[in-house]
Amino acid sequence: MPPPKENQHTVHSVCPHDCPDTCGMITTVEDGRAIRIQGAGQVPITRGTLCSKVAHYLERTYSDQRLLYPMKRVGKKGEGHFERISWELALQTIASHFHTLAKEDPRSILPYSYAGTMGLVQGGSMDQRFFHRLGASFLDRTICAEAGAQGYKATVGATLGTDPEAFANAQYIIIWGGNPVVSNLHLWARIVEARRKGAKVVCIDPIRSLTAEKSDWHLAPLPGTDGALALAIMNVLIRDNLCDEDYIARYTTGYAALKRRVADWTPQRAAAETGLEAADIEQLAREYGKDGRPAVIRVNYGLNRCAGGGSAMRAIACLPALTGHWRWAHGGILLSTSGSYGTDTAALTRPDLYPQDERFPPRHINMSCIGDALLQAHDPQIRAIMVYNSNPVAVAPDSNKVRAGFAREDLFCVVHELFQTDTADYADILLPATSQLEHWDIHKSYGHLNVLVNEPAIAPLGEARPNSWVFRELAHRMGFTEPCFAESDEEIGAQAFRHDHPRSSNINMATLAETGWQRLNVPEPYAPFAEGGFPTHSGKCEFYSEALGKQGHDPLPHYVPPREGPRSNPGLAARFPLAFVSPPSRHFLNSTFANLPRFLEAEGRPWLDMHPADAAQRGLKDGERVRIFNDRGAFHAWLRIDEATPGVRQGVVSAPSIWWQKLSGDGCNANAVTSQALADMGGGATFYDCLVEVAADPL
Fold first, then answer.
1. What is the pLDDT of residues 225-234, one digit of tens each?
2. Residue 660 is part of which domain span?
3. pTM
4. CATH number of the CATH domain containing 372
5. Domains held by the chain: number
6. Which pLDDT score, from 0 to 100, does residue 5 have?
7. Nearest partner of 324 among 156, 530, 538, judged by Cα
């Protein structure tokens, strides 16, 4: 990177978006304007490169679509008509509504936020303090990863795993339920390094993703059947003596019970569930257990968005302990590195502020069920909602109900946003938010082992303000006098990591300010469970989990079939025979970037991938407009059929997401057909547990 000119300077930045890479960036500023953004070469995971979305982040920052001033609604909800007001009027209006509702029952107020920014300050600190102190309803933020995380932690103890940097030395790599070419670019670079050294790369995914195309072998199970595949792999490993008996004896518990459980999960039985060939399951198990030593699995959240997502993740998490692949730094499994950090969540969010009032016991609302939560009678009913770092009208399942809930005229709705999203159209008060280049933050990652700091590069555009400022000001107007509401962003950030935690004890604010990043206090190479030491109750990898048993779950790995599957629900499948998934588009990041011209042009229009045989059965042709529907709703897309290399297996259709509804062409997106039903663990969403039918629907 060339040195800045005399009238230029650079600042440390961090990509804030919901991606495991959490890239370090360098922003060049000239005369108060950001003119260049680049990957930080000194940050190990980033190595100077950014994805094709964030490389153009200045287009997002300086977009003429940015919200720059507070506004209030004029006209009907959903029409998106607003007029400018002052910050003072906006804040007083919000505080007045909240104060009135809180006197009656503060639980009638609900925050709704998620991963619009992954920063620890702007993503979950002053806002959480505010709503804790208010006594508002709790939002269970489970929409993405919670089912899989719970299944993984029940086995391993925490979301710890293989260092992503170590993938470059792996000899056998399984990518299960993920598409790192699109959503984990820097890990894919390490996988490419390993492949150059002779590693074999296997991709397990119902669709032929870009990662599947570039892998050595692609296996396409039916959606929601990954747990059956994992149990059959264990069956073969045990049957053919491919397990590491020494590792099992030293560092696991429940092996005898596990052997009994998987004894009848033959490859033939799993083939019937998954739609795979039994011979392929046999080969995968043998290669993983013997020929590919050491092997590493990159398991991702795609497979956890089904009825049995937690159980499937739990079964997969058993595999590296059975085979002893944990013995190597470049073996094991990676779901997330988020549990590696000694994050001091209590200091950031202050749950101790929640009022101890017997009249108002804590009430939880699952964010995946926001449609029903807004429409159904509760005690108390949700009468106010404040949305930030999220766009639920576009991203939440069963979106017809979500939209109807937000359209309630008696619901006071506040939205803090950079752009006028689908959700913003329903706001009573619409507040302008800062971009990542306009505020301070500190970041951990779920795809590497570094802490990074984000410095403001430019002054906020217009009257945009950070989340922390908004909730600090609201706390003042609500009369909250606790000192924590006066803390600056930097003071909050200094509390983000526990200094008595072995892996975060080295994190130093002065060093972060100077270099922009620090690696956690872990060795290189890092083999977290080479000699056991699992953060479970037993200290071992728990094939048998007493904790799950106490929660009412099966303590052993087992298979939970899809709620909506051709075998598990034949009655529904007779009407809606196609399994539907809606993975991320390459050009969007959830609904972020999905309004910007560059990315809309690259995506073109909403697409539906279908197998040629399924299309022929329905008389459908490549490029025609189709209607995708079930009992929950419908949306439209244009058909893509690849005769030579189909993008999906037969019986499955896929619509890359997430389109803003108002930009999709018909006012709907893929979530018109998805379900609010929850997964088996953690209250996770089940976006990919969905049956539909497809029919021609010309304009």
1. 999 999 999 9
2. 570-696
3. 0.96
4. 3.40.50.740
5. 3
6. 79
7. 530
